Amino acid sequence: MTLSVPSARVVDLRVESVDDVLDRVEQSLQVRLDRDTVLRKRRSVGARTDRDTWVRIERRGLDKIGAQGWNGTECAARLEGIAQPAWQGCVVWRGADEPVMWRADETELLPGMPIGTAVLSEDPKLPDEWWQAFNASLDALAAQDTRRVATPDTVTVTQALVTESIHSVFSGDFDTTVERWVPAHADLNWANMTAPTFSLFDWEDWGNAPRGLDSASLWGSSLAVPALADRVRQERRRDFESRDGKLMTLFVCSKILGPDAHPEDPRLEPARRMAEQIVAELQTG
């Protein structure tokens, strides 16, 4: 028997009052949040503390919290060989009046500024040392072992999701079966990495995913800057040349080109060209 979980109302924390939430986090973690540094996003709020740490607070509906729980940042603390802010502790509580949970994770401060928004419109001109550290962390992540399953955009990635996402946008007789699943960050974009010192943060959705998901996701976030998108493909070419990497590229393209596509999105044409090329390769290969 499967128990249904009621859906939470859609909330945008960029416009909702969060004063009570910040007060509760301060009391629970015994810390003072610097209200002048509060960074508000749709699903999360962050702020610097008086002990030179960072607290990230997220609201998530119970229907978006699966059997593996909701402790990605905490679980990522045991990963080895990855440049990420050290995890300090957390507080979790259930909303009193609606089916949601709140979670606040405290980590050390980032070693640099986030590179930009999720989708970049200009080249950040990252040095070779940055790309070396980036590759080392992604390679180390893929070599780890976990029973977690990635939840990109809070949706558990499954073979069925991959097949449905790809074939809902791209026609053709080709197999979408994933051959290799490896640990992935699952939200790899330019807003979740720092420079000039490389660090990868926001680990709440990490877990096993098809090989190449992270590389394809970053490539998709770079398409408005062709040279940057080419650099991502060059640095992660082993992922992109693999069959799973090609499927993940189509998976990312399906999000860009799907029914919610914006007609003026500069990524549309390069995503369409790449998708056509990959579909042709998969059909003949």
Relevant terms:
285 residues; alpha+beta; Phosphorylase Kinase, domain 1; Aminoglycoside 3'-phosphotransferase, Chain: A, domain 2; 2 domains; five-stranded antiparallel sheet; two-stranded antiparallel ribbon; 9 helices; 9 strands; 16% strand
Question: What spatial order of strands do you see in the largest sheet?
Answer: 1-2-3-5-4
The mean pLDDT is 94
Question: Looking at CATH, which topology of the largest domain would you report?
Answer: Aminoglycoside 3'-phosphotransferase, Chain: A, domain 2
- Indicate the multimeric state: single chain
The stretches of 5 or more residues where confidence is low (pLDDT under 50) are: none
Care to describe what's here?
The protein folds into 2 domains: 19-108, Phosphorylase Kinase, domain 1, CATH 3.30.200; 113-284, Aminoglycoside 3'-phosphotransferase, Chain: A, domain 2 (Alpha-Beta Complex), CATH 3.90.1200. Helix 5 (213-222) runs antiparallel to helix 6 and helix 8 runs antiparallel to helix 9 (268-284). It has a 5-stranded antiparallel sheet with strand order 1-2-3-5-4. It has a two-stranded antiparallel ribbon with strand order 6-8. Strands 7-9 form a two-stranded antiparallel sheet. With 285 residues, the protein is α+β, with helices and mostly antiparallel strands. The protein is globular and about 60 Å long. Helix content is 34%, strand content 16%. A hairpin with a 3-residue loop joins strand 1 (39-40) and strand 2. It is built from 9 helices and 9 strands.
